[in-house]
Structure formats: C-alpha cells, structure tokens
Specification:
15 helices; mainly alpha; disordered N terminus; 292 residues; MetI-like fold
Length: 292
C-alpha cells in the first residue's frame, strides 16, 4: 500500500514550468530601465559636477568626468553657509513636524472616522481644500499671525505652520481608513468597559500604525524640502534651513556651479540616509492594507 500512495520526489518539480517571458514583458522591462536611467540622470550629473573645479567645469562642460578629485567645493559650501547649523535646524524642525502632525492627524481622524461627529463630510472637504491652496495665498496671513504671536524669525513658527498643513492631509487619509473600521469591534470594547482613550490606543492605534509610519516618513521629507514659507519666516542664518542655504549660493551675476552641486549632494545625503533606514517601514506600511 505504501508503494501505491507514495509519490515520486521529483514529480511536482517536473510538472511545474516557469512562465516564459513574452515580447511584451521584455518591452515593459526595457521601458522601466529607460525610465530609471532618465530619473537617475540628474543625480549622476550632480555627482559628476560636485567634484569638478570651476576651471574643469567651464572647459569640459557638465557632462564630462572630473579630471581630478576636487573637494574645495564641498569645503566652500560647508563654510560659506554654516551647514552644520542649517542641518540641525532642518533635522529637528522636520522631525518635530512629522511627529506632531501624525499625532494631530490621529486625534482628528478618530473624531471624524470613529466618533462620527456632525458635519464630518464638510470637514473632510475643507481639509481637501486646505491641501489644494497654494502657499502664496497663505503666506501673508501666516506671517502676520506669527508676528503678532511673537514668533517672527523663530523655528517654532515653521513647526506650527507645517504641523497644521501636513495634518490636513494626514487627517484625510486616516479618516478614510477609520471610516471603514468595524463597528462591532468598537462596540465590544465599550461593553468591556473601555473608555474612549483606551479604545483609541488599544483598538484603533494598532490598526492604523502602519499608515502612521508612512505619514511620518512623508511628513519628514516634505517638511525638509519646504522652501517658500521658511524663506519668508526665517530671516537670519542661525534659524534658516538647508534649502535656504542652497538658494543663498545663487547670485544675480555669478553662479558657482560646482559648489552648488556639491551643496546639493551634501544636502541630499541626510534624506537619503533617512529613507534607507525606514525603507522597510515604508514598504510594510504601504502593503499593510493589501495584506489584510
């Protein structure tokens, strides 16, 4: 009997065949490679020009390889703009905005999606409108408000402004997730005697934690790259951020392209490190809904 019901060890391997790649698959792969090259081209050009001397750049152009390794551009950028101060300003403002905006988004979304407050559809519509308004429309009232609060030329003005702006998008995203939260699960928690605070942290928070992790990464990078509002609000070198330091290298009549590329390269490194550190968190957060 054992010989009747037993199966050869290699039977399953022989019956399974790998799918053959068709012409359409190869075309899609080639298109993806071309798009990747086009996306990487600006970064490659920046990397080439960051280590060129001004003479080398003017003689051979932006697409040539450096004739020798030129590091004075990096040193000049670091010293001219006081990069260590700008770097710390960008790190702590972006990190604080990311954390505060996500927490505020959770509280707002909990009230809208789970609390079912009146007029929640209008509130969500206003949040969408706030995301569509250009910063040029908001800059004058925001500047006046911060001056009246005594926060002119203060990094706390940037933290407050971008916490509210970023939380508008975060509230919309998390509210759409919590709007489909199972009511039976919430009712069971209430019957067990859980308060609203306990329901938030023990029932709701574990479900939306992957989405919140994604929002933290997005909010950090978005705030890091902000230029217009920090340029208006922050007027001294001690309070300015990295994007403003890059803009200070561009003059009306003279532009040091190698130094500008070196500054852009140095400014890109912190966000690249941040993204690589949290890449797995971002992937898990994006695919959490599909897995569930």
């Amino acid at each position: 009997m054992a010989g009747v019901i037993s199966h050869p060890r290699g039977a399953s391997a022989s019956t399974t065949e790998r799918p053959k790649k068709t012409l359409a698959t190869w075309l899609m792969l080639a298109a993806a490679v071309i798009v990747a090259i086009l996306m990487l081209a600006p970064f490659i050009i920046m990397l080439l020009n960051a280590f060129k001397s001004p003479t080398d750049y003017s003689t051979n152009g932006p697409l040539s390889f450096p004739t020798h390794l030129y590091l004075d551009g990096l040193t000049s950028f670091w010293q001219r703009v006081g990069f260590e101060t700008k770097l710390w300003n960008s790190i702590w403002t972006s990190g604080l905005v990311a954390v505060l905006a996500v927490v505020l988004s959770l509280f707002n979304a909990y009230a809208i999606g789970v609390g079912r407050i009146k007029g929640r559809l209008w509130i969500v519509a206003l949040l969408l409108l706030a995301n569509m308004l250009p910063q040029e429309v908001l800059i004058y009232p925001l500047f006046t408000m911060m001056q009246e609060l005594g926060l002119g030329n203060s990094q706390w003005s940037i933290v407050i402004i971008f916490t509210v702006i970023q939380s508008a998008f975060g509230t919309y995203l998390l509210a759409s997730v919590l709007g489909t939260f199972p009511p039976a699960l919430l009712e069971a928690a209430r019957l067990d005697g859980a308060s609203r605070w306990q329901i938030l942290w023990r029932v709701v928070f574990p479900v939306v934690r992957p989405s919140m992790s994604v929002l933290v990464i997005f909010f950090f990078i978005w705030t890091w790259n902000e230029f217009f509002i920090p340029l208006v609000m922050l007027t001294t070198n001690a309070t300015q951020t990295v994007p403003i330091a890059l803009a200070s290298l561009q003059g009306d009549r003279m532009l040091d392209v190698p130094t500008l590329n070196a500054g852009a390269l140095v400014s890109l490194v912190p966000t690249l490190i941040f993204f690589l550190l949290f890449q797995r968190t971002l992937t898990r957060g994006v695919t959490a809904g599909a897995v569930k």
